[in-house]
Every structure is written in structure tokens, then in C-alpha cells.
Design brief:
The protein is built from 13 helices and eight strands. By secondary structure, the protein is of the alpha/beta class. The protein binds glyceraldehyde-3-phosphate. Its EC number is 5.3.1.1.
Amino acid sequence: MSDRIPLMAGNWKMNLNHLEAIAHVQKLAFALADKDYEAVEVAVLPPFIDLRSVQTLVDGDKLKIKYGAQDISAHDSGAYTGEVSGPMLAKLKCTFAVVGHSERRQYHDETDELCNAKVKAAFRNDLTPILCVGEGLDVRKAGNQVAHTLAQVDGGLKDVPAEQAETIVIAYEPVWAIGTGEVATPEDAQEVCGAIRGRLAELYGQEVADKVRIQYGGSVKSGNVAAIMAQPDVDGALIGGASLDADEFVKIVRFRDQ
Ligand SMILES: O=C[C@H](O)COP(=O)(O)O
């Protein structure tokens, strides 16, 4: 039996300004109870400009909800216009930094090499990276989803030592299931999440592999979350669209009741 605590993280993507962010986190805080936080780690991943507002609310009201950024610069400071650094995120008491979301890989040409540098930047600044991996539709149709995804895991973790690797979160997000309503079957999710854990065991040993939380992401909703979470190698979800609806997100956090 795994003692990995599930992580339910709401990736708001480019939605909710800083005022809407406050209202949304207040709704979540009102709805979530201590018993929710005992069973599940709950996090929101707002746009950068919302983070200060979220931090102020979480600190001021001593909320148990965690938060993090949707991206992180590979650099800690300097002339990198438009970037936000690990030290800046750490100063805002972020817990997480998403690395290599498929939308960054697709629209911003982020390579495994850059993702690896961002993973290291997160660790360097005591942030937990959520490394996103997953295949597109063409790769899935060719049956190469496992090999493709494991190559991204290898790339993201290159030269990352075991003591850091055991704390990473890996989010398996089949690109064809993101925002499409096309959810992977629980068996599809388990096939790749299980393979990811197998690769972690090859790279770092079973003890480290057993500590890593592997999330599924792609059209997760209250209606499908329980079946996905029933898979032995799925330890949470990275939720996009459904996380913007506070009631729906709370139902997902309470996946055991669905
Ligand atoms: O980061 C979240 C994923 O991209 C999933 O998004 P979605 O739940 O809207 O399909």
C-alpha cells in the first residue's frame, strides 16, 4: 500500500486576474475542511501576476491550500526579459513550479534540455517541480506513447540526484486529452504512469520510485476522477478547465466520495 498523499493541483492556465484569483481561493477555502487537507494535498497554480494576491490571502488567513507557478525561468537572475525566477517564486512562498507543460512545449518550443534546466532551477530554490510529460495524438496512434513519455522523463531528470528526484511530481498528460473532453481511460493512464514509475526505479531504485507522486492530467472532472485515482500508479491530478469552477474542483479533491 502506498503512503503517497494524493496531490490535486488546479492549473488555471491564462485565466483569472488577481482579483478573480482572490475570490476563487476564498471560495475554495470556504468549501474545503481540515479533513480534506488531511487526505489530499490541494494546490492552485495561478498566473504569475496572481501569486502575490494568493500568498497574501493564504498567509493572512493561514489557509492550508498550497500554490505554485505555471513556469519558472532556468536562470536565477539577470537580463532575461519577461522571465520569472526561482528566487522570486520562493520569496512568494510558492511550493510548486510547473515545468514543461505541453502548452509550453508546443507554443514556446520548450525542449527536454530546457525543461531539465528548469527542473534544476526549481530544486535550487527549494521549489517542487511538477514535470509534465505526455504524447500527442500521432504518437498515441502509432502506439509509441510509453517510449515517447519515458524519453521526456529521462530528459527532464538528467543529472538530477536521487535525493531531489524523490520529491519531484511528474504529471502524465496525454496532449490529445487536454481541454478536449477526451479523457484517457483509467487503463491508458495506468499504462503510462506505471511505466514512468518503472523508469524511475531503473534510474534511482525502487525506494525512490515509490516516493514520487505521478499525476494524470487531461479533461479530469468530478465524474471521471475516481476511476483514474483508483489506478495504483496515479497519485493525483493536474486539472485545467475544471479547476476554474470552485465547486467542481472541491468535488475532485473529494474524489473518494464520487
Ligand atoms: O494542466 C492541466 C492540463 O493541461 C489539463 O487541462 P484540462 O483539465 O483542461 O484538460
